[in-house]
Task: structure prediction
Amino acid sequence: MPRVSLKSTVAPAVRPVLETTTRPLGRRRFARAVAAAPRPLRIHIGSGNRRLRGWVNTDITWNAEAYLDATQPWPVPPGSVSLVFADNMIEHIPLALGRAFLRHAFEALAPGGLLRVATPDVERVARQYLENGELARAGLERHRERGRDLRYPVELLFQVFTQHGHHKGFLYDFASLSAEMGAAGFEVSRREAGDSTDPDLGGLEARLHPAEVATTLIVEGRRPLD
Result:
């Protein structure tokens, strides 16, 4: 029998109620997870159903392992976090909230700590469509493997820019994300999937199909040493 996500079995109209009513429990779970986690802390933002061992796995959904709204001040001591990982999270929130997330992540990180952000790359997705070559064909095939009957390269744009709640957020290219992270105080470098300046951040991305890797933007920001 195929595995069914618990999240998918809950009617969309019911989810906001569940998320509101379970939030206090989620906050207590976060506090317990922080208390039990090794030091310095590693915070996984927007974890969904993925659980990274040795990390505090957080989300804002009702069934999250631990609740954390990363756009609000984080209930951790400033400088107590060494690593923050956010995989396909920042594109779901507007630019102003993205700036708040970057600011609070910077405050939580210790000097020398790293934030790794993975998100769809607007420039690469646009090239995938405009060039309409092997990468576009691989992208369409990947969507069909995941149960989406995509037939035309233009649908690749539709999927990234309008689906999965992305229309409510802000999508980035390297120029915009690196500028925003720099404005928050980070020293910025561009990476690729599986590659990191820190071995504990390498290979964490969930989307590792070649067509996904080729259209993903990964940026790391280091909090400067005091």
Notes: Strands lie at 41-45, 56-57, 81-87, 109-120, 187-191, 216-222. Residues 129 and 153 are 6 Å apart (CA to CA). The longest strand covers residues 109-120.
